[in-house]
Structure formats: C-alpha cells, structure tokens
Amino acid sequence: MKSILFGLMTAIAIIGHAQTEPTPTDTLQVTDQDREYAILTRLTDDLDLTDNQVEAVSSLLTERTSSFGSVAGTNAQKRVAMQAINDEFRNRLASILTTEQWDSYQSLRKELIEFRQVNNVKVDTINDLKDDF
C-alpha cells in the first residue's frame, strides 16, 4: 500500500514538474566541466591533437578552471584576473602545440572573435570569459 501511494505521489510530482514553464536557469545549466569538455573536444578535433597533447591540454584546462574558481574581487577585478588566466592558458598551450597546430588555433580564435563581432555578442560576463579559449 505504501509503495503504491509513493508511486502515485512521485507520478503526480513528475507530471506537475513537467507542466511548469522552464526558466532560463533550468535550460542553461552549463558546468565548468561541460566547458572544459567542449573546448577540449573542439581543440582535439580541429587541431588533430595526439593522445599526449589531449592529456596535456586537458590538465591545462582543469588548472585554468581551478584558477577561475579562486578569482575574487569586484567584477572589474575579476575580469582582469580572468583575462590574465586566459593569457597564461594560451602561452602554455603554445608550448604544447606544434607550429601548424598553433597557427590553426590562432585561426579558431580569430573566427570566435569575428563571430562575436558580427553577431554583436558582448563578452561582458564572467561566464563569457570562461567560454573563451
């Protein structure tokens, strides 16, 4: 009897939840690990990274995410700190990639910047800086 009652209550809760309108936060839950995976996948595919490079870039992305987590201060201070973290990421990435891969990476970055300009995408939030690569 208790299990039937529990099942009915669970079903009602699920149906009730399914009928509510999703909020922007319900649909846009992107974790730092999601960002790392997306960036690593893009770089692996577009730059044809070797297994050793994938491991090194993955570690570098994890370090970058950890550094982002330790940033404190006003939004302006955070922005400066996170831009410095991204600059350091790119400097260290350059030492992992071959010259050809680095050139391809620079092209990817240029495309990202141009896309943002053409589509009037402003990099004005902390999460935008996390999406940068």
Draw up the topology in text.
Blueprint: H1 2-19, H2 24-27, H3 32-47, H4 51-69, H5 75-96, H6 99-118, H7 126-131
Helix pairs in contact: 3-4, 4-5
Give your account of this protein's structure.
The protein is mainly α. It has one domain (31-131). It has seven helices and no strands. It has helices at 2-19, 24-27, 32-47, 51-69, 75-96, 99-118, 126-131. Helix 3 (32-47) runs antiparallel to helix 4 (51-69) and helix 4 (51-69) runs antiparallel to helix 5 (75-96).
Record keyword descriptors for this entry.
mainly alpha; 0% strand; globular
Q: List the total number of helices.
A: 7
Distance between the termini: 56 Å
Q: Mean pLDDT score, rounded?
A: 79
> Any idea what the shape is?
globular
Largest sheet: none
Could you say which structural class the secondary elements and strand pairing correspond to?
Answer: mainly alpha
In a few lines, what is going on in this structure?
The protein has 133 residues and is an all-alpha fold. It has helices spanning 2-19, 24-27, 32-47, 51-69, 75-96, 99-118, 126-131.
